[in-house]
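Our preliminary data section would be incomplete without showing what the modeling component actually yields. Below, a chain of 406 amino acids is followed by its predicted structure, encoded as tokens that our downstream tools consume directly.
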Amino acid sequence: MSEREKPQSRIPLKCPEVAVFFDLAVESARGILRGFTQYIRLNSPWNVNFVSKTVNDIDPSSLKNWNGDGILAHIPNVETLEEILSKSCPTVLLARDINHDLSECHRNDSPAGPVFVRCDNAAIGKMAADYFLQKDFRNYAYVSYSKPVCWCDERRQAFSETLASRGFSVAHFLPPENSSDWFTQRDSLIQWLLELPKPVAIFAANDFRGRQVLEVCQKAGISVPYDVAVLGVDNDLPVCEMSYPSLSSIEIDWERAGMICAEALDSMMHRKIPSAQNTYRPIRVVSRNSTEFFRVSDRIVVQILEIIRISRGQNLRVSDILEMLPVSERSAQERFKKVLGHSIMEEIKRVRMKNIRQIIEETSLPFHEIALSFGFENANHLGQLFKKELGVTMGEYRKMRLINKE
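Predicted structure:
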């Protein structure tokens, strides 16, 4: 066979070089990169260069001397967008945070791209509204992001339209114009929250914004979740779990987004037209304490619930609670049972077991350490109570939860 007749090899001569512009400090970027990495592992290897690690590090000049095969980018500003587009190589763009006309460059019918992979923000807004409607709220509000961004407006619009179809209006907090300073925004947010009718369900543009709402509520003496219930977006675990109280959030299919990005980029680098399906969606609402809503108007009962929640039921006695309240034990017990249908001690035990289950499920801490932290003398005592209530041992429960996650 002559050299001219030799078939073309399927084995690439070199790994494609891909530049990634991402803010690795946020869960959305980390989740997208997990999906992006999965695609690469299942297919041919790529040489991936991380051009930036945080939003502040994203410098459009970083690409001036770069000549690679493809780009995956989160676009924080017009300058970065224009520099990326000037490279004229296969490009996938994410998280449109800027008000910029992309009609000229957004060509999914061309292998040259670029392709814009978008989140279904309308589905997020509708999911938030449906979640709160199931909890039978009557007052609703939305807290926008700290600066004008398209995805924030899309979530607000879908949230408001879904509620309007059920006869409800939505109060809307917009940060003061020309004010990116959180402390200035905080004062405005406090005043706005104090004026809202209660109880109110608040949908925050994302988890960082939701955490700020919780911070402001604590500062203003607004009870969460009894006066205000707060829901964020992204399910960023460090943000949600370290908030006070823990923040409920809408989980997004970030890994699916990463797979879509990689598949589109791979097609373009092979001079093929990428798939027209470039949208990823929310998965579910992850409920935490910030939306654990009871319709409670008795302020004494609210105070008792707050004390129990803050302590996690951990080594707490009824007498400890009553020392903080200006009522007798009999009055407190009667008022509490009238609202909740059970005693204060039963609520302590319920909250304690709920937190124990959560720690067993989400950590690998030894059972004896968990038992001691909740006031049990040993793991055997806790184990007996756990099996009596749930019908399985703590070990069996942890194993089942791990299997379900997989």
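The first strand starts at residue 17 and ends at 21. Residues 103-109 have pLDDT under 50 and may be disordered. Preliminary results of this kind motivate Aim 1 of the renewal.
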